[in-house]
Amino acid sequence: MAITFTSAFKRILFLLLITFTFATTLTANDLTLSLPPAVMKGIDATVRVEGIDKITNTSPKLLINGVRVDLEKDKNGFHTEYSFDEPSEVQVIMPGKVISKNVNPIPLWLSILPPLIAIIMALITKEVFSSLFVGLLFGTATLYKYAGANFFIAIGKGALAIVDTYLMEALLDPGHISIIIFSMLIGGMVTLISMNGGMKGIVNILSKYANSRRSGQFITYLMGLVIFFDDYANTLVVGNTMRPVTDKLKISREKLAYLVDSTSAPIAAIAFITTWIGAELSYIQEGIVNLGLETTPYSVFLNSLQYSFYPILTLVFVALLIWQRREFGPMLSAEKQVTQNSIESIKNEGKRNPQIMKELEVAENINPRWYNAVIPISVVVIGTLIGLFYTGWDAATWSNKSISITTKISQIIGDADVFSALVWSSLSGVFTALLLTTAQRLLTMKESIEGIINGFKTMFHALLILSLAWSLALLTTHLHTADFITQILTSINISPVFIPALTFIFSAFIAFSTGSSWGTMAIIYPLMLPAVWKLGLDAGLSHDDIMPLFYNVVSAVLAGSVLGDHCSPISDTTILSSLACSCNHIHHVRTQMPYALTVAGVAVLMGTLPVAFGLPVWISYLMSIGILFLIVRLVGKKI
């Protein structure tokens, strides 16, 4: 009997346990409360709740500081936008379960410190890797400190979050992965066409035309203009191709990086058919729809080009420097150093500095042939264009007879998948180089593959920096760094004629702080296009008077984004320029920044600002070019 009673008791207990578990699952199934990674003071935060009472089919209740807050239902559960201005208790209540979280909002001004710390440290220490890491660590530690952790735990968790959250998320982004693969493939291709004598063959031919420092720089400049359709392709192809030529002509790596960086983004930003055009038109489209303007985004873009002072004047300034054979500032020191040293010193520095790829010597039994390099590079260039057309093709757009052929091509490329096009073309370039090398028996298959892998390895250091820069950009997004800067701008009551110049400076500062020109455009276009229109109407201006200011603001956002990108040591295109030219990254930033700021100053004072007051654009360009010529002539020293 004792045994029977015990067995029955166990069965009853088991059934009660199962019933309790089942009931609990029904009443509080997967109840979750989630908040953004960083809750900033005064910024709307999305409070998300998931879960529902399956017995009564009732929704959860949300209480903030004991006050009921209404939730909106969506396909993923419930959510609401709430601005936390003080430490608060957030509760989610359902029958049988309560979830509670304490929220301590972070002051918004702290959001500017992570990128600012990284930038200042990089400029002072001349070492970008540790600078980016410290900037990231400050930001992530701040998140945990305001989440309630003590100082040491916040530092420890922040360090782990850099790797398992921000770095991981940056590396899992499809666009970022595409850039990494593209960069590695370009590095492998360049290494292989160096080993098979192709690069030496190009050098031998270009040497006939690039027989002086000026002609070598001019050819680099022309190549930068020719590869106009994408800044990434421009930077990596031109930098890697011209580096052996400029080394031979005793042109510093810093000057090569400047030539590459200052022809890639500026030309890609203003050309009619580029990978930038899709993003630009989408932002403009959103602005004109919200304002109810009867025009097309492409028409606005075309009208705004005349106001693109910084990109256009940058291209003019580069040409003036080459023509006059003059330099100033840190670039003058870099050029003097390389002209006074031998070619061997350049190679030796490459061996000392891990950021500079070692130049590969061609075996004595290999006859240098130019086409072993030109064919793979052409495959990359032409393949990118084909890939852009393939991924962006729209039969309806092409058959539309009401739009011009230029507009059709621009819309197709604008809708293209640039990252897929770059990966396909670079992979095709590697296969082409491999086929040419092995078919001519210049190298064995094993030697060729080892060369390609060695090319992959040379990209590691720069790609690690690039990944940290992406992580910092993600952190600034979570911390709402742009919102902090935006609040400063909108608090100023100013005349509409000053808005284009202010927009240029504002865009440059955000791009400098975040390292992203595209991210800056996404932030500033929706803010400044309605702002200039509203301010114009409030000032009593007519539609015809506002439109020139509107076009000026459209171009100012783009131009300021490019300027900030040029000056920022955490910018991906600036890092890629250093990578492609095998130049010390901080040296590149230090030598390029004075030139970029010089052009920016002239662009604002002689272009953006006076044109907003009514000065004809052509007079502004004449004045600007004249002043740049005088600066180069009077301040620059001949090299």
TrEMBL record:
All copies of domain Na+/H+ antiporter NhaC-like C-terminal, residue ranges: 273-606
TM ranges: 106-125, 132-155, 175-197, 257-279, 300-323, 370-393, 418-439, 459-476, 488-512, 595-612, 618-636
Sorted UniProt keywords: Cell membrane, Membrane, Transmembrane, Transmembrane helix
InterPro entries: Na/H_Antiport_NhaC-like_C (IPR018461)
Compartments, record wording: Cell membrane
Bilayer topology annotation: Multi-pass membrane protein
Database matches in Pfam families: Na_H_antiporter (PF03553)
Protein name per the record: Na+/H+ antiporter NhaC-like C-terminal domain-containing protein
Species of the source: Carboxylicivirga linearis
